[in-house]
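Let's inspect a concrete specimen:
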Amino acid sequence: MMFKRIVQKARHVSNRIVGVFRQRPEIQVAGLREGDTALKESIEEECRKTLGKIRKMFNEADGIEIYVKATGEGKQRLYELKGTLFTGRGEMHASAEGRELYGALTRVLYEFENEARRAKSWKNDKRL
């Protein structure tokens, strides 16, 4: 009995120490060019707003990672976004593509909100 408590306490302390090094930033945006800092900041702001909404529904949301892939030039430019929502239980993935960056970003973030609603209703289901 005493040994179990010692092991449990040691695991708790080690998880807290290792957890500090494993922490990732709340919002990560990757795949943009060097000069696209304005786009990156506006994407981060939209993600921050959505993460706030998600956290009201689903407490376990840790952060969002967005990867932007742009192909073509001028009017032929096509954006492909892949997003990951990190939670305490795992990850949720969403992707979208389109000619407008913000349209695709809105679809990805909207899908994250819907997944959070589903997770909240699943968590609150009393029959389980």
